[in-house]
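Recap quiz, item 2
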Amino acid sequence: MVDKPAHIRTHMQTKKPTLPTCDKDALKMVEVGKGDRSAFETLFDTYAPALHHFVLRFVGNASIAEELVQEIFLKIYRAAPQYTPKGSFKTFLYRVATNHCLNEIRRAYYRERFEPLENIQTTKEWSDSKITNAETDLIGSRLARQLQAFILELPENQRSALLLHRLEGLSYLEISDVMDLTLGAVKSLIYRAKTTLQQRLEAWDEEQHTT
Amino acid sequence: MKNNTPHNKETPQSDLLERAWSELSEPSFTQAQRQRFWERLDTEETSSHPLEEQAWQELVAPPYTQTQQQRFWQRFDTECVPKQEPLPFWQRVFKQCLNWLEPQSVSWSYASVAVLACALLSTLTTSSSSLHTTSPSKAVGVQHAALHPTSKEKKQMYKHLVLYQDLDMLEHLEWLERQPKKEIHKGG
């Protein structure tokens, strides 16, 4: 058998990274499952502000974001009695959050396509309100608002991976756990998202300087 | 008609062609290539793009305000906290007695507390036909009776609360509990 080059052997022998078994907040979540409201209050106080930021960037609309954050935490609370502490609480929370946001976006799309028009807010209206909110609610410079607009144009899975990485500081491994993807797929999603954002921002910047 | 497809195996030339096609259609993406790809991806991923970096820096996290948090807890209380069913009769008696007699009676047995509640009720019912107008001085008397019931009072209250489970009496007791304590003491 032919020996493989040294750098390949090293790569192949590298121990597969693993996630921690569970953390203190995961144990707190177990307490919530036993009816401990104060444990739930602690988890809420710890994670709600960051989750709110994540959801806001994900959907780009302040009032929808607030409602989604509420629903995510209510979901977490109701799921507590069945919760099994494995991995970190944060990855569990963001798995629920990401799925909930994706469902919400798809539901909005479904409503637009299949419900009578007079009953619903169309995607255009939704997207107009996004723009309005981007102007008024989403704090930041013009450049930041432009970034937000480009984030909203990214495909959902790229958007999820990028925001989890950028805003929440989740590692690739944690993101792969949250999104149920391979490590390679996560890297690829983030790479594509970053490339797209970079290109669009540069084009936008150039346009600003020429006009 | 001559068959030009690469799968023609009729002649030695086509065998050669077949082998060439199969080799051509199965490029191997070697471990080394895979390694180089991930190295490049990691490098490009971690390399800084000044404009994008600046944009992220300027994308300020909006505050999750106190009002927003309050709205969440209001919704939580509405949707997740079970509505309290009225307590069963004897639990109400017990709770009310504990409220009334604290701290002295906390360790008393259920029966003793019930008996004291009965004493109180018995005094109330016998002393006034309209309990809701009980004067503060009378309330103090009632309290005293509850703490030091006579045997006659015990008998009466036992009849009303233990045998009849008299809800009206219990409500009177609860009403008395709601009255400002200061007034009761002032009256004494």
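Chain B is about 70% helix and 0% strand.
The radius of gyration of chain B is 43 Å.
End of item.
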